[in-house]
Write a structure and sequence with these properties.
- The chain has 118 residues and is α+β, with helices and mostly antiparallel strands.
- It has one domain.
- It is built from two helices and six strands; from the N terminus they run E-E-E-E-H-E-E-H.
- The chain has a four-stranded antiparallel β-sheet.
- Strand 5 and strand 6 form a beta hairpin.
Length: 118
């Protein structure tokens, strides 16, 4: 099995970099959740974050609905134009946390090991 360097995880999924010959490959992030895997660049991950936010706004009308956390009636667009995901609001929030947490970690690492180094 290939080695990984974990970026972020929650109860719904994980984000990580692949390692090859003990070197971390940071040009793309592997995102795995709901039996689905995406291999995104940071730019695509940021775009996915925007699409998630758009979906949250679009589905805000369901706030009063009793089934909003278990209903799978929401399509979440992805940076892959041919792929949309059917998710519940609960899953959408978990995916949002996973993506935002991953982006935060990437930005923090860039600062700490880049600009922030003395």
């Amino acid at each position: 099995m290939r080695e990984i360097e974990q970026l972020y995880h929650n109860n719904f999924g994980i984000a990580f970099y692949w390692k090859k010959e003990n070197e971390t490959i940071t040009d793309k992030v592997q995102l795995v959740f709901k039996e689905t895997g995406f291999y995104f660049t940071v730019q695509e991950l940021n775009y996915f974050c925007d699409l998630i936010e758009d979906s949250m706004i679009e589905n805000a009308c369901c706030e009063a609905c009793e089934l909003k956390n278990s209903c799978h009636k929401f399509l979440l667009k992805t940076p892959c134009a041919q792929i949309d995901l059917a998710v519940s609001i609960k899953e959408l929030k978990s995916i949002k946390d996973l993506v935002e947490g991953s982006l935060f970690r990437i930005e923090l690492d860039e600062y700490v090991y880049g600009v922030g180094m003395n």
